[in-house]
Design a protein that fits this description.
Radius of gyration: 22 Å
Order of helices and strands: HEEEEHHEEEHEEHH
Helix content: 10-25%
Structural class: alpha+beta
Shape: globular
Number of domains: 2
Mean pLDDT: 86
Number of strands: 9
Low-confidence stretches: none
Number of helices: 6
Strand order of the largest sheet: 1-2-5-4-3-7
Amino acid sequence: MAESEELDQWFPRPPESLEAQRLGIVVGGSLSKGLEVKLDPQTVIEGLAVGRYVVIHGRTGRRFFSIVNDVVLDVTNPLIEKTPPDVSDPFIARVHQGTSTFGRIHVAPMLVLESFPSSSSTMEGKEREPQPVKTIPGHFSPVYEASPEDVALVFGDERQPGYFAIGEPLDMAGIPVPINLSRFVERSAGVFGKTGTGKTFLTRLLLAGLIRQRIAVNLVFDMHNEYG
């Protein structure tokens, strides 16, 4: 029992309720430049996209909410790039996949998700507010897909008063990203982007949310008749 507890301390297991798939482990990086993650052999690299949210489980119970900003193919021996093996044989392909050839992703930690310590009797098991990242997880920390609960903890729950869903993360269909409209109208805001990136569509969503929840009065100067 003692050995099991010691292993759990150094290699923490994810919560039993976690349904997200493990993607790989942290193998390097820095706070300023981001982290390198070696993908597990069973992870399909084509299923990962830049902009996807992932969560890294640290050894101290912290969860690092991160975003994928690069996807890379890598090899253990540079000669493989010069003289690729004959992978027409499925067995040879399986031997190389995940060992001599593998995938990597580069992720940028954004926020730290952490529960209250067990010493706090009233708040035990509850989540703290997401905190800015000031450190990074250690080598071999497991990386998982962000769960709907993780996304809701960061962006909020659309079922809460004042929240309105404005979209979904890339490659994460069915997981809404809401915005707190009550906080949104407290300050000046702008929607910027290149042509064709969806500025008008996003503005329509924001206006629809404000009208639906009756949070603010809207005065629209529609110079190009984009809002009907």
